[in-house]
Specification:
heterodimer; A: 748 residues; alpha+beta; Alpha-Beta Plaits; Sulfite Reductase Hemoprotein, domain 1; 4 domains; five-stranded antiparallel β-sheet; 24 helices; B: 198 residues; 4 helices; 8 strands
Chain lengths: 748, 198
């Protein structure tokens, strides 16, 4: 029987394949108890392999908390996270750009590994839920074969880089930011300077200031397209924002630089990353995002540090090399642009055209939005959508931060036909971007931190609103609703007109699911302002609260007054008074329905809340790097078992260099990947100084590295392979010991 | 010997559209967890009824998923075995049929006279594109064996046909037996040796 690894070996880029092999080796080491659970957890997260609710082996069934006895109960994939428990696989889709072939492979994976469902996130990722960790290496290989990586999709790393889904077709953009988002993705992926963060780092691009676009003001690093006339030439660049973020404590980003040219974009980003890695909080995960560092230092001091860092960022041809290929970033429509030609229009088309069709800057073309309820679609829809894309738009598919698809470059004449085809697969719902198009995080369905059912509430609101959408005034129809299952704001409730986030209250002896009402956030202007928390109401009262709010808004608003202004004018006190009647809690005997959450018949409990993995594990850079050396050593062992002695030698040698690099990087971050430089730096810093010396063996183990580095073996046989693998093991142990002597603590 | 797929699904569709709505299945499956009404290490219930012709409502277990499946516009009970499949196809199919039948009967008992499954037709899905590409030669290679195994389960001749011929889709077959040619109690007796997870 063959394997995906063998089958796809010629289709997977070598570096991507190597990283997956290392991850698979780490899995094996963890199962054998030879890799620290925190180190493995962070490694796993950096591959996008995330924990899920109940993975601690406990679940409340509505009567009592029961133990979930998984087969490998004694093996964990992280602290308090059982190996066999279903998990989530996050898959990075940079700026949301997908090809038809990639969509097909994603659908295949959903079919086989995750119940046939794919989920679009607010970062333009795809997530598969209920995935077993043992399936993840093959899943990654199948993605890698079509150019998709899960590398650094979670954990303390640079997350998926987002951009406006209309980039390149928008009327109002300064220029298309897509190729810049693509270049930054390539540049930062696996970069040495982004491996030692205390928390995640989110980057977004936007082509214009006015619309929501990339939401740059709520990001760690936001890039807003600008152009300037310099010496008679139009120069492209960006206004750079830093330190934005939602979460429990939302921060508006500050302007780091009013204008940074495209030549300066990547080095400046690198400098920001280096300052964050060096000065960002590492121990207290609640204050480890960049926004806290910027707030603590002040934007002026932070700017000064970045400017100083910029002076010592090592030269790198990649800083500007991407500019040579900016012109290659062209869109290939499947058909010539053509106006709607008076053909008969199908039922429902007019409303869909009104809400889901955007006339592109390019004459004769439109971008259409495919509204996916709760961000979910089936594998079957994925296959059929790939067919539709090929038929009408080619590979011009993108995911949006509102958990939808867009198909770009639809010839206008094809709009009725594509509407019919989408309707046949259930993806032609109108109302994209309106009040029925509600954003929701996973909440209690799958998230370990969820307090209330954001998806359950969203589904209920959506059902009710769809029924009466045609009766709603325009002012209400265009409102944004966003729902989070807890205060962490993954559903982006702060930037909605009407936001909700889950919490709980007690009534008598029972807990009751609640949602805090957050009003007046601004989606436009790149998440221009954040809403105000106005009070918590029972989850089951939220539909009535929404109705009361919108009715009063329609009745009292001045002409053309938007929701944010109306909320501000009304004032928090008055809003609180409006919510007051809804805050009266029935007893369990009076209304037991209030004590169950939306979409869940169990009596509500918060006993299932666990420890989230959003923050990653606080693991030292050395621990992460030495684990790569150990995994590569393990690969050498496997090669030896398979009788491939040359591969055993190569992996053993590589493992020694990686171990040396791990130690060197504790003193010299910029050592790079060149074996000669690594060995030379290791020799001068640790061997010549005798820091690596073992108490008894002195420098013997280091000399194993020097010997192999100086000369490849003339003959490789089984005995030799055994020997170098043993030597590698001794050298890795030697590096571990030296690091503990020199730096003290390994795992934070 | 024919390879056992990584995952194996057996679905029985309903004979007619029931009064019971997919939303009504959620509390049933939640209660099944409390009462351990079906075998396995039952974990959670997932609600996907909002997606068109999707997996509907899934009772997730460690070894298998029990879905009130809405795929292909036909509501039904889809048992998908995910782990611990026996090492030969006959045993794997017998195991999956056993649990699918058990769960379908349990669901019928929740709404007597409303939920009625058509046991004369089973959709068998091979969730394993490495070993089961959806291609004619794969079908040719396994058709007779599937017919024989399922025929033994039913105690009657079985027709086996491919569900679709799109090479991207999962390899899946329909196993059909003439109504009246089988008896559910007899099937249960033939599968009575399967005790695991009970």
């Amino acid at each position: 029987m063959t394997s995906w690894k063998e089958l796809l070996q010629d289709e997977i880029p070598a570096e991507m394949g190597n990283l997956i092999d290392i991850y698979e080796a780490q899995m094996e080491l963890r199962k054998q108890g030879k890799l620290d659970e925190k180190v493995f957890a962070e490694s796993r997260l950096r591959k996008g392999v995330y924990g899920q609710r109940y993975d601690n082996g406990q679940r409340h069934d509505g009567v009592q908390t029961r133990e979930l006895t998984f087969p490998s109960d004694d093996i964990v994939k992280g602290p308090d996270t059982l190996w066999d428990a279903p998990g989530m696989q996050r898959i990075k889709i940079p700026y949301g750009g997908l090809t038809a072939e990639q969509l097909e492979v994603l659908s295949e994976l959903a079919d086989e590994y995750s119940g046939g469902i794919l989920h679009i996130t607010t970062r333009q990722d795809i997530q598969l839920h209920y995935v077993h960790i043992d399936d993840t290496p093959d899943l990654m290989r199948r993605l890698a074969a079509v150019g998709i990586t899960t590398q650094e999709a979670c954990g303390n790393s640079v997350r998926n880089i987002t951009a406006c889904s209309l980039a390149g077709v928008c009327h109002d953009e300064v220029f298309d930011v897509s190729p810049y988002a693509d270049a930054m993705t390539q540049f930062l992926l696996g970069h040495d300077d982004v491996q030692d963060f205390g928390r995640k780092f989110k980057v977004a691009f936007s082509g214009c200031a006015g619309h929501a676009c990339g939401l740059v003001k709520m990001h760690d690093l936001g890039l807003l397209a600008q152009s300037r006339e310099i010496e008679g030439e139009t120069v492209r660049g960006f206004t750079v924002f830093v330190g934005g973020g939602l979460g429990t404590v939302p921060h508006q980003a500050k302007v780091l630089a009013e204008f940074v040219s495209e030549e300066e974009l990547l080095p400046l980003t690198q400098a920001v990353a280096r300052v964050f890695a060096r000065l960002g909080e590492k121990k207290n995960r609640n204050r480890a995002r960049l926004k806290f560092l910027v707030a603590k230092l002040g934007i002026d001091e932070f700017r000064g540090l970045v400017e100083e860092e910029l002076k010592i960022v090592p030269p790198d041809e990649r800083h500007t090399a991407y500019m040579d290929s900016l012109g290659d970033f062209v869109y290939e429509p499947a058909k010539a642009g053509m106006a709607l030609n008076g053909a008969a229009l199908p039922d429902g088309f007019a409303e869909w055209y009104r809400t889901n069709v955007y006339k592109q800057a390019q004459s004769g073309y439109s971008t259409i939005t495919l509204h996916t309820p709760l961000g979910d679609f089936t594998a079957e829809q994925g296959f059929q959508l790939a067919d539709i894309a090929r038929r009408y738009v080619g590979d011009n598919i993108r995911l949006t931060v509102e958990q939808n698809f867009v198909l770009r470059w639809v010839a206008d004449a094809d709009l009725p036909a594509i509407y019919r085809d989408l309707d046949a697969i259930g993806l032609a719902d109108s109302g994209a971007g309106t009040i029925v198009d509600i954003t929701s995080c996973p909440g209690t369905d799958t998230c370990k931190l969820g307090i209330a059912s954001s998806r359950g509430l969203t589904a209920e609101l959506r059902t009710r609103l769809v029924e009466k959408i045609n009766l709603l005034p325009d002012a209400v129809r265009d409102l944004k609703i966003k729902v989070s299952g807890c205060f962490n704001s993954c559903g982006q409730h702060h930037v909605a007109d009407i936001g909700f986030f889950g919490n709980s209250r007690r009534s008598g002896n029972h807990k009751m699911p609640h949602f805090q009402v957050v009003l007046g956030g601004q989606w436009q202007q790149n998440a221009g302002s954040y809403g105000l928390a106005c009070g918590a109401v029972p989850a089951k009262s939220v539909p009535d609260v929404l109705e009361a709010l919108t009715e009063r808004y329609v009745a009292e608003r001045a002409e053309d007054e938007n929701f944010q202004t109306w909320v501000k004018e009304l004032g928090r006190k008055e809003i609180k008074a409006m919510l007051q009647p809804f805050t009266k809690l029935p007893s369990f005997e009076e209304n037991p329905a209030f004590f169950s959450d939306w979409g869940d018949s169990r009596v509500y409990t918060i006993d299932d809340i666990g420890v989230g993995e959003c923050a990653g594990e606080v693991v030292s850079l050395f621990s992460m790097e030495i684990s790569r050396a150990e995994s590569t050593h393990f690969e050498a062992l496997l090669a030896l078992d398979e009788g491939d002695f040359a591969a055993a030698d190569q992996n053993a040698y590589k493992a020694m260099v990686l171990a040396a690099r791990a130690l060197v990087r504790t003193k010299y971050l910029d050592v790079g990947d060149d074996y000669n430089v690594i060995v030379q730096e290791f020799r001068s810093r640790f061997y010549d100084t005798e820091l690596i010396y073992d108490r008894f063996a002195k420098g013997k183990f280091a000399r194993y590295l020097f010997k192999r580095h100086a000369e490849a073996p003339a003959r490789i046989n089984e005995d030799y392979a055994h020997q170098i693998i043993d030597e590698t093991q001794l050298f890795i142990e030697n590096v571990h010991s030296a690091e503990q002597r020199i730096n003290g603590v390994i795992v934070g | 010997m024919i390879t056992v797929p990584n995952r194996l699904g057996v679905k029985f569709s309903l004979k007619q559209k029931p009064k019971l709505q997919p939303a009504d299945i959620l509390p049933i499956f939640q209660r099944w967890i409390q009462e351990h009404a079906v075998p396995g290490m039952l974990i959670d219930v997932i609600d996907y009824k909002h997606v068109v012709e999707g997996p509907g409502v899934i009772l997730v277990a460690d070894e298998a998923d029990y879905a009130y499946d809405l795929g292909e516009g036909q509501a039904g009970l889809n048992y998908i075995r995910k782990r611990d499949l026996p090492d030969n196809l006959s045993a794997a199919l017998r195991l999956s049929f056993h649990h699918a039948l058990h769960a379908a009967k349990a669901l019928e008992a929740e709404a007597p006279g409303d939920l009625i499954f058509d046991y004369s037709l089973a959709k068998i899905s091979f969730l394993d594109r490495m070993n089961y590409r959806n291609q004619p030669e794969v079908f040719d290679a396994v058709r007779a064996e599937i017919a024989e195994i399922v025929g033994e389960i039913y105690g009657a001749p079985v027709e086996v046909s491919r569900v679709n011929d799109d090479p991207r889709r999962l390899f899946a077959v329909r196993a059909t037996v003439s109504a009246g040619n089988f008896d559910l109690d007899d099937i249960a007796r033939r599968l009575s040796d399967i005790r695991e997870l009970a």
